[in-house]
């Protein structure tokens, strides 16, 4: 959350307290804020509501840890869905294609794990371990957003053709096309195992696509 979210966060906390017949002091609100400000306001709000509807724990006032747990449960689903998208792209496009996903967190995780080409070239057995590592790292980024991430990942074809001065196709947009373009726009660099300058002609090609 951002500092401008504090007022509506305080209103949310106050309302939750009223549901349970409790009143929050400013100190208590500050404690909840300190713990939960790493998340988006919408995530925190949704987590409170999930707690309220939970028949097992909903009768108790949610502590900060309860809200984090409710959010983390959602992050597990998000991480699994993200890996399913990546695994499908590996099978469909492979290491030869340059790719852009519609989720910046996916880019951050793939970079942490050595890049797109390395992930694609992993054995079936290794991918089982990669799946677990990917999801753990993804859940971490749900809580603590990455400071930066690659615009897209270069495949083998673009790597070879660009170094030889040959024409190459723009990256494949995976998932929601507009969101993928946004990832390109907000990313910091192109990943090929090292940081590279972003090719301007590729940026224009993606924008037109």
How does this model look, in words?
With 209 residues, the protein is mostly helical. It has two domains: 3-57, no CATH class; 74-208, no CATH class. Helix content is 61%, strand content 7%. It has helices at residues 6-19, 26-36, 41-53, 64-92, 104-112, 116-120, 124-143, 156-163, 177-186, 200-208, and strands at 99-101, 150-153, 172-174, 189-191, 195-196. The strands form two sheets. The protein has a three-stranded mixed beta sheet. Strands 1-3 form a two-stranded parallel sheet. A hairpin with a 3-residue loop joins β4 (189-191) and β5. α2 packs parallel to α4, α3 crosses α4 (64-92) and α4 (64-92) packs antiparallel against α7. It is elongated, with a radius of gyration of 21 Å. The chain starts with 5 loop residues before the first helix and ends with a helix. Mean pLDDT is 89; it is low at 194-199.
